[in-house]
Amino acid sequence: MHRNPSRPLSPHLTIWRWGPHMLVSILHRVTGSGLATIGAAALVWWLAAAASGPEAYGTFVSWATSWIGIVIGVGLSWAFFQHTLSGIRHLVMDIGAGFELSTNKFWANMTLVGSALLTALFWFVVLGVK
Amino acid sequence: MRMETPLSRVRGLGSARSGAHHWWLERLTSIAAFVLFVWLIASILRLPSLDYGTVTAWLRDPIAAVPMLLLIVTTFWHLKLGMQVVIEDYVHEEGMKLFSIVLLNFFTIAGAALAFFSVLKIAFGGDASNG
Q1: I want to staple B121 with a disulfide (CB 3.0 to 4.6 A). Which of A51, B1, B40, B77 is the partner?
Q2: How deeply is B86 buried, as exposed, middle or buried, from its count of CB atoms within 10 A (0-12, 13-18, 19+)?
Q3: Tens digit of pLDDT for each residue in A16-54?
Q4: What is the residue range of A44's domain?
Q5: B107: CATH
Q6: A56 and A72 share a domain?
Q7: A21 is in an annotated binding site
Q8: Residue among B41, B49, B55 minimizing CB distance to A50
Q9: For A5-9, A31-35, A46-50, B81-85, which range has the lowest pLDDT when averaged over its residues?
Q10: Could you say which residues from 79 to 108 on chain A have a Cβ atom under 8 Å away from some Cβ of chain B?
């Protein structure tokens, strides 16, 4: 078989050089899956505990404010902001905009910067107010 | 005997036979969830504390209970649509794929129902201080 070496190889994860757009793409699924499982469970637990009474709510709060609860909370808030910003980027691309290589790369990077900043801001306000 | 042409039968449907419906609902629920989560985050940051009394008093107000109910429906709908795509893409064995999607549907509805009922119970439960 004759192969023209100037033609691109068929797509495969191990062949492509990683770029921000690939990272953000797979992070959208990773953060979405995390929010859909751990995030949804935490939301249900919070509401069900509040509906069950002060004792059940106290159990939830003691877990949520333990070090493992705070680690999960920071992780979930970052996952939420990353998934949200990446989702907005996807909605923009759905209307056919932002596909130029430099624009695409710029906004992929901006979702990473933005989610880190929003997570920091969120916890700054939460811990500052309390 | 079908009187329609093959083209009219497949128009707008695509290989999944359901057209862009799933895709469209995923976008629609994402926009609704976005608006409702901005509300939830703003509300949480504005509440003086997140203790039992404050949270239940807040959820007793229709202005908080209704958006929270909408958020539950929207969020669980959106996560069900999203997780289904993830399962379809990464679970290759047909039996396991079907089993995963059945489980996803059960857990989505059970989780949403538990959260939804909890908010209703708080909202309709009356003022706890009145007994």
Answers
A1: A51
A2: middle
A3: 778 899 999 999 999 999 999 999 999 999 999 999 999
A4: 32-65
A5: 1.20.1300.10
A6: no
A7: no
A8: B55
A9: A5-9
A10: 80, 84, 87-88, 91, 94
